Amino acid sequence: MTAHASPLDFADSPLSRAFAQPLFLGLFLPVQAGGWSASALPRGTTWTYDYNRALTLKAEALGFELVFALAEWLGKGGYGGDIRYHDESLDAFITQAALAEATSRILLVSTLHVLYGPWHPLHLAKFGATLDHISGGRWGLNLVTGHRHREHRRFGQAPIEHDQRYRQADEFIRIVETLWQAHDNLDFHGDYYRLEEAYVSVKPRYGRPVLVNATGSSAGIDFAARHSDIVFTTSPGSAEIEDALAKLPDHLQRIKAAARSHGRQVRTLINPLVICRDSDAEAWEYHAAITAAGDPGALAGAAREASDAHAWRGHLPEQKYVGGNIQLVGSPETVVRDIIRLKEAGIDGLQLAFYDFAPELDYFGERVLPLLYQAGLRR
Fold first, then answer.
1. DSSP annotation of 148
2. How many other C-beta atoms lie within 10 A of the C-beta of residue 335?
């Protein structure tokens, strides 16, 4: 199978417009109970569709380029603890399909475990092409292989060895890309999938939908370098900004060099949890309150979901009460200073999260976004 057209081959594609920004912006939707913070400090954040729809419309109004939603398959009670962390959650694939009708400009990225259960490349090729048609080329796929052993077992499957997952995912997505652009029936007999006379009659508007991969391992980086437009990365250090900035440049250079070795370019995306107040002192006071109300039972539950993921390994337990790949804490000026440093380290985009999403997204739009324009990071 040969290389296929990318949305970047079309100057008017939503992805091309997003990448025209010096720093593209996304919102990491809280489609799961507790959002991204295992803390009991009171807030209005909720997993409901109406709440996430309102956040998405606000992000679109602010000029953000994309919104993400996660996918998890947990047992009753989610991760547990007093707050029953992630007990309730929406499906990312269905949520983004609904948001396609509610929005007009913003990219909508669904996280999907393509190796779980009965998923077949022909299913995804048809479903994805349909969402591309409905959204006007604004739907994207964050393809994940499933790093939690218990999630595989919930589908009646034995866990798949780490690097083998990426070999299987490579065959999966190559088939999907071929179906998206093929003009004839496809016969394919591979190591993991077989198709006979397979065809998808609705073709994506810009060659194919946007492809994203969240990874930190060698096998994952190689997969992303061959297929993805955006690599969703974590800090190879802790969530603390100075530690992250010390380790990110080499990590990001490794990702981009891997893409160049395949004759491609990728953009890097990271997920900051932003705590911004009028002063640094107020922001850190709020950070301390979130941490003090942290639910150790929720972290213990997360630890029981055995994982072989290479990302997050440098993150300290107490940092997970607040959440985020990294944490940006301070006044608007301090937050923008640290965003500039992330850009200088090689980060191309931010997938923002907040503790109390609705009011804090409003505050970000009012106080932080104008400073990003002034700094030349937004046009």
1. B
2. 25
For residue 2, what are the contacts with CB-CB under 8 A and spacing of at least 6?
Answer: none
Q: Among 256, 259, 261, 234, which residue's Cα sits nearest to residue 346?
A: 256
Domain ranges of the chain: 7-374
Separation of alpha carbons 116 and 2, rounded Å: 26
**Amino acid (1-letter code) at residue 128:** G
| Cα dist from 232 to 44, 141, 151, 162, 323, whole Å | 27, 12, 21, 18, 16
Say whether pLDDT at 311 is over 60: no
**Per-residue buried b or exposed e for 88-118, using 16+ beta carbons within 10 Å of the residue's own CB:** ebbbbbebbbbbbeebeebbbbbbbbbbbee
Fold exhibited by the domain 7-374: TIM Barrel (3.20.20)
255-257-262-263 Cα dihedral, nearest 10 degrees: 120
pLDDT value at 235 more than 90? no
Whole-prediction pTM: 0.95
φ and ψ at 321, to 5 degrees?
-65, -35
How does residue 304 score in pLDDT terms, banded at 50, 70 and 90? confident
Could you tell me the two tokens for 283?
A: 């922001």
The predicted pLDDT at position 230 comes to: 97
In 158-186, which positions are buried (b, 16+ CB within 10 angstroms) versus exposed (e)?
ebbebeebbbbbbbbbbbbbbbbebeeeb
281: Cα separation from own chain's centroid: 30
